[in-house]
């Protein structure tokens, strides 16, 4: 890969949480970023751009719904239109909906997988088509599905488990082109999504769960972003097809 100050990355779901933290981390290391944001997201991607610029980086905001293949293609193309290259892609966009099995309709199943699994495929596929040389891609899975089951979230867990198989297979397929593909499994991380008390744990649930994590607390988006940045850097030049768990030790703690 080229020197960091010349690299260009695309990140979906970058209006908040891990995606925003990653865009800022890239800015501090000279990587220019296309900041992908869902048009209906209540969080302001312009704030991500402001933080990127405060960190001394360059970026552009691009609205993209990963359920739409044409929009994803245009999103990846934006990197070439702005800077003439694409080196890094991070599939981070995701939705989380609570639904017990009896209420899990085909429509609800399909809608979530369109974002959390097929949206990942579209993101990586469009990016790979525009990488002219070596590159790196990362998809964000979840401790739910990636490691544990989660009641009333079967569709979410299935999608996140699928992300792991997708990345392993693409790592094999794209290795001859010099494109590395890895995945990360965030544990309990304080983000707008996990702080939703209806579909996820909410602030109180995160605080309670943090007491069971060996590190003593839930994680921060920046702590996941730093791992993704590593995986897409030359420091991980021989790492592909791997899954890194970022969870403060939650999954290795023996139950009391």
From TrEMBL:
A Pfam family per the record: adh_short_C2
Gene Ontology molecular function terms on file: oxidoreductase activity, acting on the CH-OH group of donors, NAD or NADP as acceptor
Keywords, comma-separated and alphabetical: Oxidoreductase
Keyword Membrane: no
Keyword Oxidoreductase among UniProt keywords: yes
Sequence ranges assigned to domain Ketoreductase in this UniProt record: 7-188
PANTHER family: SHORT-CHAIN DEHYDROGENASES/REDUCTASES FAMILY MEMBER
Family: Belongs to the short-chain dehydrogenases/reductases (SDR) family.
Protein name listed in UniProt: SDR family oxidoreductase
Organism this protein belongs to: Nonomuraea rhodomycinica
């Amino acid at each position: 890969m080229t020197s960091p100050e010349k690299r260009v990355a695309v990140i979906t779901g970058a209006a908040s949480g891990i995606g925003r933290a990653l865009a800022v981390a890239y800015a501090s290391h000279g990587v220019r970023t296309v900041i992908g944001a869902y048009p209906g997201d209540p969080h302001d991607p312009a704030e991500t751009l402001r933080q990127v610029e405060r960190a001394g980086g360059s970026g552009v905001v691009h609205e993209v719904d990963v359920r739409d293949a044409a929009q994803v293609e245009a999103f990846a193309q934006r990197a070439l239109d702005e800077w003439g290259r694409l080196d890094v892609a991070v599939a981070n966009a995701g939705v989380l909906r609570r639904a017990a099995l009896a209420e899990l309709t085909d429509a609800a199943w399909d809608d979530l997988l369109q974002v959390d699994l097929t949206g990942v495929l579209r993101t990586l596929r469009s990016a790979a088509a525009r990488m002219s040389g070596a590159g790196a891609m990362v998809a964000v899975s979840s401790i739910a599905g990636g490691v544990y089951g989660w009641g009333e979230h079967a569709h979410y867990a299935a999608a996140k488990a699928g992300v792991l198989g997708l990345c392993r297979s693409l790592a094999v397929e794209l290795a001859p082109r010099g494109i590395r593909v890895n995945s990360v499994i965030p544990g309990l991380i304080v983000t707008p999504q996990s702080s939703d008390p209806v579909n996820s744990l909410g602030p109180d649930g995160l605080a309670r769960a943090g007491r069971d994590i060996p590190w003593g607390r839930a994680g921060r988006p920046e702590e996941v972003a730093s791992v993704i940045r590593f995986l897409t850097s030359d420091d991980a030049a021989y790492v592909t097809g791997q899954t890194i768990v970022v969870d403060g030790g939650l999954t290795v703690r023996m139950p009391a």
